[in-house]
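Readers of this paper often ask what the protein records in our data store actually look like. An entry from our holdings is shown next, in its original layout:
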Amino acid sequence: LTPPLPPPTTCAGGGPFLSPPPPGGAPPPPPPPPLPEHVPDPRDWLEDIRARVFPRLSATLRVAVDSGFSRYVRDGFDPAPRLVHNDLWFTHIIERHGRLAGIIDFSDAALRDPAADFAAILADGGWHAVDDIARYYDRPLGEGFHERVEFHYWTIGLHDILYGLETGQERYVGLGRSWLAQRMREVGILPA
């Protein structure tokens, strides 16, 4: 048997990571920033894509990306932003005995269109998987849900290209281009 630990003492010296509380207590935390009323405008992202990604795309893919963004913006979707996982591949969904047991890795969570979470589900399991999971969503998914999922689905390739450019990993640029073209064909932006 090990003897019980001595009772904790107050932090008098502070040590390298602790300091005694200030006289009168800690100041109140600053108020949180206001929540956005709208998801970010995809046209703002398109400008970044044109500047950083277009130099690495063929002329055909550049025209297709512009067309895909124009089609999405034309439909005028403006879903209320929600806290989304933002990286919801099947590898982050824990299942046990045929039931949902948990969701892991919220490191990319953000306030976005809830359809963004379903793009990776579409990539992993198709529309059947999207529809199966959407029926358990506890809030309305908004107008044009399937079109919004398709937009986020084909733009996964753009995220991969940006990641490759930011990290200097050329394989992500190449894979992102391939996935971009493949997914744009699947949703009908590029001819099959």
Remarks:
- The chain has a mean pLDDT of 87.
